[in-house]
């Protein structure tokens, strides 16, 4: 946005820099979304041959379906082949799996951003910050669902690593690094929750009803050295946290 102001009796142009920045960002996202949409469809034809569903059955091509996908660079429309498995009674869209957008209308990049803000602040505040910082608009509920899905995926990977470690099947990248000490600390505290979260649970109050759930936080880190006074020094970037209700 350009304003006209007087300086020393002369009219000069003054730019509203903030408005111009946001305007150019919005323009860039419209252009970027168009380019991404063309890139996804360039030189591509939808296969009409039968495919195999997740249970190994034959799924027949029934036509194409268009998905509206929210991406980091704007909204794009993607046409994909839709295949139906009569034995499972479910549809199959192989391209969604290949692009990592199965059962979601958000791109992997947007889901990553949603998970980051959703993990650090209330979902509604995270939604507003996401729009302010990136120009990506999502609903509060969508951000909540994406954050929980990301958390569940991370939890599953961590649990798998824990199981491998307990069976001595986890391969460490730096076997030559000798860790002298590992510290484990944990604590818990009551967190107020909505009534449905404590339904059927006993509480400590006079009425015997629970009003809180215990949130537990664990911390693990290592120590391989001491300072000049012999006091232990926590190894840089060695701390891992685990939290759960």
List the defining traits of the structure above:
single chain; three-stranded antiparallel β-sheet; alpha+beta; 245 residues; 11 strands
Report the C-alpha radius of gyration, rounded.
26 Å
Mean of the pLDDT scores?
Answer: 87
Number of helices: 5
Write out the strand line-up for the largest beta sheet, numbering strands in chain order.
3-4-5-6
Q: What are the secondary-structure elements, in order, as H or E?
A: EEHEEEEHHHHEEEEE
> How far is it from the N-terminal to the C-terminal residue, by CA?
50 Å
How would the global form be characterised? extended
Question: How many strand segments?
Answer: 11
DSSP strand (E) fraction?
25-35%
Poorly predicted runs:
none
The chain-level structural class is: alpha+beta
Q: What is the makeup of the main sheet?
A: 4 strands, antiparallel
Helix content: 25-40%
Molecular structure report:
Among the domains are: about 110-170; about 180-245, no CATH class. It is built from 5 helices and 11 strands; from the N terminus they run ββαββββααααβββββ. The protein has helices at about 15-40, 95-100, 110-120, 125-135, 140-165; strands at about 1-5, 10-15, 50, 60-70, 75-85, 90, 180-190, 210-225, 225, 230-235, 240-245. The strands form 4 sheets. Strands 3-4-5-6 form a 4-stranded antiparallel β-sheet. It has a 3-stranded antiparallel β-sheet with strand order 7-8-11, with no helix packed on it. The protein has a two-stranded antiparallel ribbon with strand order 1-2. A hairpin with a 5-residue loop joins strand 9 (about 225) and strand 10 (about 230-235). The radius of gyration is 26 Å and the shape is extended. The two termini are about 50 Å apart.
């Amino acid at each position: 946005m350009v304003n006209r102001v007087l300086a020393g009796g002369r009219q000069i142009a003054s730019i509203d820099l903030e408005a111009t920045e946001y305007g150019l960002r919005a323009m860039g996202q419209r252009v970027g979304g168009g380019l991404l949409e063309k890139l996804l469809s360039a030189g591509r034809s939808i296969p009409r041959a039968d495919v195999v569903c997740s249970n190994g059955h034959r799924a027949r091509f029934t036509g194409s379906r268009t998905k509206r996908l929210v991406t980091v660079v704007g909204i794009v429309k993607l046409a994909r082949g839709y295949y139906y498995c009569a034995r499972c009674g479910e549809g199959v869209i192989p391209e969604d799996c290949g692009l990592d957008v199965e059962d979601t209308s958000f791109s992997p990049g947007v889901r990553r951003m949603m998970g980051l803000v959703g993990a650090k602040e209330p979902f509604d505040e995270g939604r507003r910050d996401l729009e302010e910082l990136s120009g990506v608009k999502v609903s509060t509920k969508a951000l909540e669902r994406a954050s929980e899905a990301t958390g569940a995926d991370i939890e599953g990977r961590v649990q798998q690593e824990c199981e491998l470690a307990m069976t001595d099947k986890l391969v460490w990248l730096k076997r030559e690094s000798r860790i002298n000490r590992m510290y484990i600390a944990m604590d818990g505290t009551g967190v107020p929750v909505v009534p449905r979260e404590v339904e059927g649970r006993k509480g400590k109050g006079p009425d015997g009803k629970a009003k809180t759930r215990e949130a537990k936080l664990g911390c693990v880190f290592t120590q391989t050295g001491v300072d000049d006074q012999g006091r232990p020094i926590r190894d840089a970037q060695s701390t891992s946290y685990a939290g759960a209700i």
